């Protein structure tokens, strides 16, 4: 969970292991993202997703996204 103003560049950073959080991970794939018009809204959403209730919500969103991808 995080935010960026340039999603393509952030993905490249993660895939090239230039960020310490993903340096040990391999084959990362983006499976879900949200876009916001204001930085304030993005920060609010990120903080929520890092709470236990937010983590549960995110897990459900990801499960549904994966199931949808299998159908399509």
UniProtKB/TrEMBL annotation:
Domain of life: Bacteria
InterPro entries: GIY-YIG_endonuc, GIY-YIG_endonuc_sf
Domain GIY-YIG as annotated: residue spans: 1-61
Cross-referenced Pfam families: GIY-YIG (PF01541)
Membrane spanning stretches: none
Name of this chain's protein: Excinuclease ABC subunit C
Organism annotation: Candidatus Kuenenbacteria bacterium CG22_combo_CG10-13_8_21_14_all_39_9
